[in-house]
Amino acid sequence: MLSCRALRKSYVTERGEVLAVDGIDLDVETGRYAAIIGRSGSGKSSLMAMVGGLSRPSDGTVMIDGTDIWGLSDDKLAAFRNGRIGFVFQFASLLPTLRLVDNVALPALLGKRRDVDVYGKAATLLARMGLGDHLDAYPSECSAGEQRRAAIARALINDPVLLLADEPTSDLDEQTEIEIMDELLAVNRELGTTLVLVTHNLSLAEQAEQIIHIAGGMIAS
Amino acid sequence: MRWLLLSLALQNLGRRKARSFLLIAAVALGSGVVFTGAVLMQSIDRSMAVGFTRLGADMMVVPEGALTNITASLLVVEPSELVLDADALAKARLASLGRVAAQKVVRVEHSGIGSHHESADLIGFEPAQDFTVQPWLVEKINRPLQAGDVILGAARDGVLGSQLLIFGKPHVVYGRLGRTGVGTHERGVFMSFATLDALGEAPGGGMGGGHGTKPAVLAPGKVSGFLAELAPGATPLQARFAILSNVKGVKVVAGDTTLSGIRQGLAALLDGILALMVLMFASTALMVSVLFSAIVTERRGELGLLKAIGARRGQVLGVMVTEAVLATGIGGILGVVLGVLVMRLFERSLVYYLENVGVPFLWVDLPRTIVFAVGAIVLASAIGVAGVLYPAWRASRRDAYDLVRSGA
Fold this sequence. Notes:
heterodimer; B: 11 helices
């Protein structure tokens, strides 16, 4: 399902070139839960950005369901991200000027989906995340946990095959962290969506079926 | 989707109320100046075209030895047996002269105009070149002047469209001039060269018939004199010297030089105002561009997020352009409203005063005013598009991850 080969990412800074990811090969099978772990600055977020089509690799390939995503044109890659990949970021990533239901519906509206009742599905997803009575609320009216659950609902609106979560609980309290992880694991198990979680929290990675340990931009184990 | 983007743009504007207000106010000021300036300049231009032309020509070129009548502000060719070649000035190609209008003047008696022994001046002009007769028209038939039409001086009676027999030949009263205070104009009968020439050719009567010899001025290619305007920047002295050096057997009579100066000065002033307007508009455009550059930088995270969830480059651009067009479009509309208020004020003060002292002020007609208003709004929106396009385009080309990280 997900296959990366010789993936490399370097950044040019004032102090010269910094190698964030250095020749990673990675395979994750469909429907699995994989955790990418490592210390801050190890290159795990850069790896996830390349896997998710958010940051162009300096070298190497990323195949998702047989598609070489970095071989696609800009617009086709955008459409691929929109339809096949869901993201949950490590910060409150909702648009502050839109209601929760608009935020959740937005990816489907951007993809111009006509096969589903977009707002009906957005409401259902929010209800599934326990936010059925928050449809018209704005992000600023919600707690951090609620915002993160709404972000998960948004990630699921287009039925992605791959759900990427980059430190989704890093700024949450322990109880909320457990709730969010439960939601993500439920999506993985119930919908069969491949889940790749990036975290530096080893306890969150314990439940993963595959653990990829990154250090210095390379797979350590 | 479009409504959602529109709502997103509106709410983003509402998110930074003070900044949005200042942006809209700056654009309103810029487009208000453009709209008001355009309408006023056009109106002043029209008023000048009529007002100054009514003040007559800057100088007159007549045959040497011809009589001339110089009033305070209006040069008038007097009837004379002396004539000039109609192409005398054109052949000389004098750079110091602007518009030139030839006239043929014939004084006739027993013409059928007025009482039996009354003499009347028949004044011929070329309608396409004329700038001294037609500006005085205060009423006319709603069609262009044509052969067989005559225009009456203010002191002559005649109903518009009625028939006037001149040497027994029917003519149509096309229009009437306002009061000029100059006898020749007051009691004159004006017509095109073609109409005047036809009168001279009338068989069995008229000027060329049984009462005497046909006046020399009615010969083909001859005129009584020329009324001329100075070219921009030229002085009466330069023009007089040029004419006398290049055209033999003529006399040059200059009008009031102050008026020429005022005419040229006002034209230069209008050009200056136009240049200032362009500068002000350009500075508004620059300011809007800098502001939108800052707005795009501030919103990198949001744009990155949009890209991450699948917005195409065009959609990312669309969000920012919609916001810019909304802000600057609203500014443009407010600018037009502001401009209308300023012009109302102008109408009640300066225009009222000018009209009270007999100086006409001709406003641009409504359709053209609407065109200027729409133009100012479109221009204001275009400033927004131009201001946001480059920074938004640059942002849309960046990796989504870079945008998300730099905006987080």
